[in-house]
Amino acid sequence: MTRFTFAATPLFAAGLLACTVFPAAAEEAGRYTMQPIEDGFLRLDTRTGAVSVCAGEGKDWSCTPASDERSELEEENARLRADNAVLREQVEELGAKPRVTTPEDVDAAMDAFETVAERFGKIIKIMRREMEELDEELNAPVEDAPEPSEGEPL
C-alpha cells in the first residue's frame, strides 16, 4: 500500500497542478479570434480589442499590431482636452467672463434695426417719387414735334 501512495503522490501533484494551470489556459483559449485575409490572418484580442496582422510561411509566422485608429482618436481627444484646459486658464488669467446676452442688449439691437428699417423706407419713398416723375416725363405728349408723313421713317 505504501507503493500505491508513493506512486499516487506524483500523479496527485500533477493533477493538482493541471487544475490550477488549465483553467487559465481554458480562459485564454477563447481570447483570440482569427479571420482569414489575403496573405495571412487578422487576429483580434477579445479582451483588449487589439488587432494584429499575422503572416508567414511554413513554420515561421509572426503577428504585428495593425494601425489602430481608435488609439489615434483617443490621443487626439486627449491633446484637444489639454489645449482646452490651457485656453480656459488663459481666459481666467485675463479676467474675461463669457458674455451673456441681456434684455438691454436685445433692446439696443432692435433699436438699431428700427433705425436701419426707417432709413431704408425713406430711400424707397424717394426712389418711388423719382420713378413716378421720370415716368410722367417720358409719357408726356410731345407738342412741338411735326407729325411724320406717310413715306418717312419713324
From TrEMBL:
Domain of life of the source = Bacteria
Annotated signal sequence range:
1-26
Q: Does the keyword Signal apply?
A: yes
Q: Keywords on this record?
A: Signal
Could you tell me which residues belong to the region Disordered? Answer: 135-154
* Name of the molecule in the record: Uncharacterized protein
Q: From which source organism is this entry?
A: Pyruvatibacter mobilis
